[in-house]
Design goal:
The structure holds 2 protein chains of 2 kinds. By secondary structure, chain A is α+β, with helices and mostly antiparallel strands. Chain A has 3 domains: 7-116, Butyryl-Coa Dehydrogenase, subunit A, domain 1 (Orthogonal Bundle); 136-205, no CATH class; 208-357, Butyryl-CoA Dehydrogenase, subunit A, domain 3 (Up-down Bundle), CATH 1.20.140.10. Chain A contains 11 helices and 10 strands. In chain A, helix 5 runs antiparallel to helix 7 (208-240) and helix 7 packs parallel to helix 9. Chain A starts with 6 loop residues before the first helix and ends in a 7-residue tail after the last helix. In chain B, 41% of the residues lie in helices and 13% in strands. In chain B, 42% of the residues are buried. In chain B, a hairpin with a 2-residue loop joins strand 2 and strand 3. In chain B, helix 2 runs antiparallel to helix 5, helix 6 crosses helix 9 and helix 7 (241-252) runs parallel beside helix 9 (294-316). Chain B is globular, with a radius of gyration of 22 Å. Chain B is of the alpha+beta class. The chains are: A alpha+beta, B alpha+beta. Chains A and B meet through helix 7, strand 10, helix 8, helix 9 and helix 11 of A and helix 7, helix 8, helix 9 and helix 11 of B. Chain A: Pfam families: Acyl-CoA_dh_1, Acyl-CoA_dh_N.
Chain lengths: 364, 390
């Protein structure tokens, strides 16, 4: 195991970063989120076809790259740096992991190519530490009814994967009502998904909490990317911006805040790498390793959530009035950071889980 | 001979076969002589000129044998040795490194002065050349372990007519020389781990000079960087070190638990864990030959974490937190956080953000050298030291 990046990972990073620099600059993202289709599905197809990001987690025998959580984490870092509006987390991480767990093969093949996109029909705010609310039920005739709110990636999904009890159902998106609601995160909007007597097909059994925990451990890497962009952009700004006849960045009050932010990000990188490295371990870890993995994910997600948000908030403050404007892309990062703070377990929920995992019991 | 893991293991096996670890000093001397003290040092100087990461192999193979005393000799091992290796003459390296490593000669550090702490380069201790000797006069402070030190690393002013950073020279000071007066400085904890050192007409041979005359600031930078890396070393085991101590208190005293303390403990547990991971990542980077800038930051995190944890430990103990283990005046050999009570740890940790570069100075270093932010306007840069306002 290593907390560093391998050469292969750095190559993957470079390819994703180059493509995003070309196709997904801040201006392009800003323009897109005001249009009717905030997701950039052309970019998504290019990322999938040319770099193969969609199939990273899919085994080679099903047309994927057979890569691990470590490579996925690197892609998430880059997508976070660009607040790229593509369904990688929702389709290639959460939905793909659910299919792998349920033992499905055909849909995996389709997802691996990026031609088909899926979304796991659970709230983005669902916690890996609590049972899902049972808002979807199966009728006697085997159809689905009910509603799931705050589902990310549903509006661009061809297929919805719906956990009901311990079963995973597959539902065609065209048979479902998907209503995007005004969302805090403009680059990853959430939707209300309504099933009314919708035909579904059981594709296997699923412990959805394991999928959410896996997603949470990797979301930390996306948050690392968000934090890095905010730190770099703020650095550039305070070096160039002059007040009182000096660069703002030469004032000790500002420098010390930047040093502290940097230190938070350095530790976020170590935590996110550690989680990705452990999540890359084989599909069936022994009980002890499974607890290690869970703890590493909880540490990474609680730390990186708060760091991404803190760095984004400091970035707004240090940009002064500019940080409050719509045309500066900073708000997209703040919104992503605040939304992912809630996503897949809040920092507090992850710390509560650690109370058990690290044997630090709560007061009686 | 190719220096790989196998060779190192063979050397270690030969050492174990030839020397009895029960004779601590002889064993340590032999370990130095065969080059297993610090394998990346040159042959004859305790090393084999091997890649630095092979030191881990040595540590594994020789675990359970007598080890150098990293407590009493922290300054010798962490600061003096790397500086002597980088700037010393062949004779100096041969003379000093072996007894330093075995602990036969303890080292201390004569840098800070009453008027020169964070602004170290303003120091006023003078060294005036007299033939083959230098005559040193001045006062140093915060000198850990001076009371049992045989040698010290010393920075002194050799030219008052140039700006402050340029008039300094670096020496090895003989702590047994006439005119060296060590006086205990009792601290906030009640013990005297530090000293004031008065230097009056101390004569040091020119062969005790380390580096060129006037180059003392550059030499001191090497020392200070090594100090910060050494201080920032985090525990390797998850849940170890200071967080382990607080966690043990928490586990064994359920009656003291409150929800507020629980939330704070969990936050600090996470911080301790991410700091530990960042330390591991830094060590990996170093052994992969990618010296990252993370080192300067590690001491910063260590200081604030230690202070928060030791403070929480006292608080959560309730009544017991009102007590203190022992106020008896004593001359400690080294800082031992774990051999004393929670009150001691809390008070001693206050020094973590001051010693070895204050947290403020370290933030400046991170901001300027890592993040490339401009320095504050300086009024002292081009002024001869003697003309600086004092």
């Amino acid at each position: 195991m290593t907390l560093l990046y391998t050469e292969v990972e750095e190559e993957l990073r470079a390819s994703v970063r180059d493509l995003l620099a070309d196709r997904c600059g801040p201006d392009a993202v800003l323009k897109r989120i005001e249009s009717a289709s905030p997701y950039d599905m052309d970019l998504w197809r290019t990322l999938s076809r040319e770099i193969g990001v969609a199939g990273l987690l899919v085994p080679e025998e099903y047309g994927g790259a057979g890569a691990s959580a470590r490579e996925v984490a690197v892609v998430l870092e880059e997508l976070g740096r660009a607040v790229a509006p593509v369904p990688f987390l929702t389709s290639s991480v959460l939905a793909t992991r659910a299919l792998l767990q349920a033992g499905e093969k055909d849909l995996l093949r389709e997802l691996a190519s990026g031609e088909t996109t899926a979304a796991l029909a659970v709230s983005l705010a669902a916690s890996p530490y609590r049972p899902l609310p049972e808002t979807v039920t199966v009728t006697d005739r085997g159809t689905l009814s009910g509603e799931v709110r705050a589902v990310a990636g549903a509006d661009v999904a061809d297929v919805l994967l719906v956990p009901v009890g311990t079963e995973l159902y597959r539902v065609a998106a065209e048979n479902v009502r998907i209503e995007v609601v005004p969302s805090l995160d403009l680059t990853r909007p959430v939707a209300t998904v309504t099933f009314s007597d919708t035909p579904g097909e059981v594709i296997g059994s699923l412990d959805v909490r394991k999928v959410l925990s896996f997603g949470a451990g990797l979301l930390a890497s996306e948050q690392l990317g968000v934090a890095e962009w905010c730190l770099d952009t703020t650095l550039a700004y305070i070096k160039g911006r002059h007040q009182f006849a000096r660069p703002v960045g030469s004032f000790q009050a500002i420098k010390h805040r930047m040093a502290d932010l940097w230190l938070d990000v350095v530790r976020a990188r170590a935590a996110a790498r550690n989680a990705a490295d452990l999540l890359a371990a084989g599909p069936a870890p022994d009980a002890e390793t499974a607890l290690e993995i869970e703890a590493a994910s909880a540490v990474a997600e609680s730390w990186c959530s708060e760091v991404a948000l803190h760095v984004a908030e400091e970035a707004v403050q240090l940009h002064g009035g500019t940080g409050m404007t719509w045309e500066h892309p900073l708000h997209l990062y703040l919104k992503r950071a605040k939304s992912t703070e809630i996503a897949l377990g809040t920092p507090g929920a992850h710390r509560d889980a650690l109370a058990v995992l690290a044997d630090l019991p709560a007061p009686a | 001979m190719a220096l790989d893991e196998e060779t190192i293991r063979e050397c270690a096996a030969a050492l174990l076969a030839g020397y009895d670890p029960a004779d601590r000093l002889e064993f340590l001397r032999a370990r130095f002589d065969v080059g297993l003290a610090w394998v990346h040092f040159p042959e004859g100087l305790g090393g084999l000129g091997a890649p630095r990461e092979l030191q881990n192999v040595v540590e594994r193979e020789l675990a359970g044998t007598p080890q150098p005393d990293t407590g009493v000799q922290a300054i010798g091992l962490g600061m003096a040795a790397p500086t002597i290796l980088t700037f010393g003459t062949e004779e100096q390296k041969k003379r000093f490194l072996r007894p330093l490593w075995t602990g036969e000669e303890i080292w201390c550090q004569l840098f800070s002065e009453p008027g020169a702490g964070s602004d170290l380069a303003t120091l006023g201790t003078r060294a005036v050349r007299d033939g083959d000797e230098w005559v040193v006069d001045g006062q140093k402070v915060w000198t850990s372990g001076a009371h049992h030190a045989r040698w010290a690393i010393l920075v002194a002013r050799t030219d008052v007519d140039v700006p402050k950073h340029r008039g300094l020279t670096y020496f090895v000071c003989d702590m047994h020389a006439p005119g060296v007066d060590v006086r205990p400085l009792r601290q906030i904890t009640g013990e005297a781990e530090f000293n004031e050192v008065f230097l009056t007409g101390v004569r040091l041979g020119d062969d005790l000079r380390l580096g060129e005359v006037g180059d003392g600031w550059r030499v001191a930078q090497t020392t200070l960087m090594n100090e910060r890396v050494a201080i920032g070393g985090a525990p390797v085991r998850r849940g170890g070190g200071m967080i382990g101590l607080v966690a043990d208190t928490w586990r064994s005293r359920p009656e003291l638990r409150t929800h507020d303390l629980h939330q704070r403990l969990l936050r600090l547990w996470v911080e301790a864990e991410v700091t530990r991971l960042a330390g591991s990542r830094l060590r990996e980077q170093l052994s992969a030959g990618q010296p990252g800038p993370e080192g300067s930051g590690m001491k910063l995190s260590f200081a604030s974490l230690n202070q928060a944890l030791s403070g929480l430990d006292v608080e959560l103990r309730g009544e017991e937190g009102l007590g203190y283990d022992d106020w008896t005046f004593r001359r400690s050999d080294s800082v031992d956080f774990f051999g004393r009570g929670p009150g001691y740890r809390y008070l001693r940790a206050k020094g973590n953000s001051i010693e070895g570069g204050t947290s403020e100075i370290l933030r400046n270093i991170v901001a300027e050298r890592v993040l490339g932010l401009p320095s504050e306007p300086r009024v002292d840069k081009d002024v001869p030291w003697k003309d600086l306002p004092r």
